[in-house]
Every structure is written in structure tokens, then in C-alpha cells.
Amino acid sequence: MMEDLRKPAFSRLWKVALFMLLFVAGIATAFDFYYDLNDDTTIKDIISGAYTGSPSGYSVQMLYPLSFVVSLLYKAIPGIPWYGLFLCICQFGAVALIAWRSTKLVKKQWMQIGALVFEALFAAGFLIRQFVMIQYSVTSGICMATAIFLFLTGEEKESPGRYLKQNLVPVLLVILSFMIRTEMCLMLLPFLLLAGFSKWMAQEKVFTVHNVKKYLYILGAALFGMMIVFSMDKLSTVMAGNHDDWKSFQSFFDARTKLYDFYGIPSYEENQEFYQEIGLAREEYTLLENYNFSLDEEIDEHLLEKLVDYQEAHAGEGQALSKTAGFVSKKNLKEAVWLYKEQLLGMKSGVYAYLLLALYFSYILLASGRKKSGCYWKILLLLVIRSILWLYLFMVDRSLERITCPLLLAESMVLLGWIIGETTRKQESTEKFLMTKAQGAGVYILLALCTAAAFVSNLQRTGTEYENRERINSRWESLITYCKEHTEAYYVIDVYSSTSYEGVFYSEKIFKNVDNSYRNFDICGGWLSKSPLMKEKLARSKISDLESALCAGERVYFVADGDKDLSWLIDYYAFKGQNIEPERVDTIYDGETPCFAVYRLSF
């Protein structure tokens, strides 16, 4: 009997293994894997030890328990790109989990192969760009979307304990998503709650102690796990020897995030009286404008918090910020509704919009004719959830692809889970089941055609972006190489010169030219500025503060794009009482093309 059970499992195993081998090999053959943004490379540098010289679990963005574990791997074998490998395992592991579940839902060999082909088209059509340019927020979203799918397509166990065991993988995926990017996990949580609610309402006897326990066990396990890792993250800074520094930095980080990501910095000319009141001169304000605020020690958490308080207090009085029921945002609700309408009518989500339309149509086609399907109230709730989240993103002006892609993916997983539930549901003798095999086949053919079209479109877009990265990123690699060749010096890089060129973001390849040795350079601002890690990095190079170090001698240099106007730097030092002249002492070349200038600040 045991042997009979093992045969189907082994048959599925080799199919899924072969599928994943071909899927990953296909992408790896066509592309190299990149970290998407400098946020990802900064996390990598912290955890690997390239930032301070020693691997650290305090990656700021990811929760400490996860960062700490990855940092231990770097300590054990420094030459392996553990962080990038971890993100790849999460993303491709999610595809493998869905493939394993898909082959379990259908028994016939040809249907299992068909399911795997469909998944390959769907995964690549939705995420080919995200599989190549890997971003940790997207990875978090993929884990959440996979948890939704696995939960919706799982078996119904009678015992609450067995039901929890059956859904242990989805629970662990939620906790993993929470550790990778807490904000992304929480944003997608309503979709998971809807998935649970829809399964609960599908029970014959909904409000029984037995059924309530089943779903409370799942919810409780996920929330308890999230609470544990979050508490461990907070405890880690308490246990650190520099707890006060971390506390100050967290306040600085939160205020900086509100200003740059949500509120914006109030204009100096229009708010000059306020700036004079808090003691911020025009020259110092310029550092906030161009993000180079690491130069000024007086730009601290207290100053940024005053700016945040000022923006919140004056929201709604002018055109810059709006206030809706106490909620401060860049756009008001009316503007957000207009943008949302434009997005829907203009199909501005591109191929994702057509895929979602096909999923909505397919689910309604399959479920609307069945009694007690709950089709309409489920669709209504899903639309309400997605609309609230989109309106929020439009109000705060954060409809970035790294946020919207996981949002659309989670929505599609809810719909796909419901569709599979309808096509695999057993017909009850007491009910007329209107869906025919032809309808079911028609639905999957429609979805396959849409996913194939999405794959072709996204493949072309990814190829174009990849070529641009290959061309532009060599500039950044030239800078890294130059700094590595001049180990006796320390380089302070202008922030906007370090982020992108011609609209293409600088980044690094995950698996090529891996070097986790200490880096003797840092950008002059950004989300790691003023952190204990930055102070540790400066202390390693015997630098007390950047402002004085840049003028102290020949060991600390300022780096910027070759054609960058540095009048703001001259004005800042003049305000501080020092007349300096940026002397160009070297040029960094990309091949034969000059790209960065190295300056010594001379009196």
C-alpha cells in the first residue's frame, strides 16, 4: 500500500524537478541575475561584511533574525553570494511549491504536464523581469502570493490540528515574507484574509466551534510567528552595545522615509521663516534636496522630525499635501479616484491588466452558474480590497512597479485559487453542476493564450532593460574597480551620481564578479546615513565626520559624475566658514570613456 502511494509522489517529483531545472536554466541561459536597485546591494554589503568589514545582521530593512542567519553564512563561506542566492531560492522555490501543488491537483500524466506548461507561461509572463532583476520587496510579495495559492488549493482536513499541519508551509511563507519586507507582507495580508474567509464561508456548517478553531489556528500561528520574529528584531537593538545610537537612527530613518517617500521636503523659498526658526540655512537645505545630508552632522533625527511635523501640520493648506480624515498624502482622495479610473480604463497595468481580466472572466464563467458558489460577494470583496490598496498607493504617490507587481500577483493568485477550486470541485448529486468539461478546458486555453502573450511582451521589455543595464552598469563597475585599486584612500560619492545614468539604475550582478571584501567608499546620503553601521565604517577609516575629513588631507576624496556641477558643495563649505575649491585629481574611465571625476577639496 505504501509503495502504491510513493509511485505517484515520485512521478510528480521528477516532473517538478525537471520543470524547475528547465525553467531556471532557460532564464539563466538568456540572462545574468541582477540586484534590481542599490537598496538590494546595500543590504548585501551590510550582511556580507563589504560595508563595515564584518558581516552584520543589522541590515535595517530586513528583520534581524533573517539577516543574522544570512550573515552567519557569509562568515562561514565569504566567497558565496548568500543574500542573492537566498532571494533566488525564495522566488524559484515559490514556483516549485506551486508546481508541486498543481501536479497534485490533477492525476493524469498529460494534465500534469499541461499544468506545468501553464505555470511556466504564467510565472514567466508575470515575473520574467522580476526573476532577472531581483528586488527584495518583490521577493516578499512572491512569498505572500504563493502562501495565498497554497492555502486556497489545500485539502480540507477535519481536525484543526491536522488542518494547521496541512497549511504549515503557507504559514511559514507568510512569516518569511514578513521578515524579508514587513511593509509588503502587511499590504498583501488582506488578500490572504479574504482567501481564508472565502474557504471558511464555503463550509457546509460555517459557525461551528470546530470550523472556527480550524481557521483561528491558521491565523493565530501566522500572527504568533510574525510577533516572535518582530520581537526578536526589536530585542536585537536593545541587546546591542549601541542601543541609543540605533534608537536615534530609527527615528531618523522613519522621519527620512516620511519626507522623501511620502511628504516631500517643503520649499525653502516659500517656507523661509520656518527654516530660519529651526536654524536650517539655504546651503544646508540644498543637502536635503540633493540627498547628500551625510555631510552635515546637524541634520539629525530632531531636525527631520520638525520637518515632518511641519508638513503634517500644514497639510491641506496648499497644493503640496492633502489631508483626508487626518491622513496626510500627496494627493487627495478625489485625485486618487481619478488616477485609479484612468488606470482601469486605460489598462495602464499593461499585460498584467489583460491577465487579470481573463482571470476575472474565467472565474465568473465557472462559478456564476453554481448555487452557493459565493461568486458575486467574493468578487465584490476582492474588488473592494484591491481598490482600497490602489487608492492608497495613488494618494501617497507610490505606485512603483516593485510595489504594484506583488499587488497584482497576489490578486491573481486569489482568482487562480478560486478557479482551480471550481474546476476540481466534485459534483454533488443534489446540485446541478452547470460547468462542462468544455467550459473548463476553454477557461484554461483562454488563460494559456493570455499568459503566452504576456510572456512575449514581458520578455521583450526585460531584454531591452537588460541590454541597457549591461551598457550602463559598466560605469559603476569601473568605479568599484578604481576604489579597490586605491585601498589607501576613502571615497565619498555624490548620491545622485551613484544611483543611475540616463535613467538606468546602477546595480550589480549576483553571481558574477562576487567580491565581499571591505569597500573603501560610501555614498554621501541615503537610508544608511547616520546609522551606527555608517559610524562603524567611518571609524574603521579613522574618520570622525565627512565634512571635516574631506578637507583634512589627501586621503578622503569626493566622487561625482564627470560633468556634475559642484557649486552647491562650494557654497556649503563657504557657509561653514571654509573657502574650498574642488580640485579634480583623477578621472575614472569606462573603457576609453570618462565617467566619474575624483576631487580633492583644496583651500
The helix tally amounts to 23
Radius of gyration equals 27 Å
Uncertain stretches: 427-435
Indicate the mean pLDDT. Answer: 91
Which sheet architecture does the biggest sheet show?
Answer: 5 strands, mixed
Structural category = alpha/beta
Query: Total number of β-strand segments?
Result: 11
Which range does the strand content fall in? Answer: 5-15%
Net shape: globular
Give helix % range.
55-70%
Distance between the termini: 86 Å
- Strand arrangement across the biggest beta sheet: 8-5-9-11-10
What does this molecule look like?
The structure is a single chain. The protein has 603 residues and is an alpha/beta fold. Helices cover 65% and strands 8% of the residues. It has 23 helices and eleven strands. It has helices at residues 2-30, 38-48, 64-76, 82-105, 109-132, 136-152, 160-166, 168-180, 182-201, 209-239, 243-263, 272-278, 282-289, 301-313, 333-345, 351-367, 375-396, 401-424, 437-485, 495-499, 532-540, 546-552, 567-575; strands spanning 34-35, 133-134, 322-324, 327-329, 490-493, 500-501, 504-505, 521-523, 556-561, 581-590, 593-602. It has a five-stranded mixed sheet, with helices on both faces. The chain has a two-stranded parallel ribbon with strand order 1-2. It starts with a helix and ends with a strand.
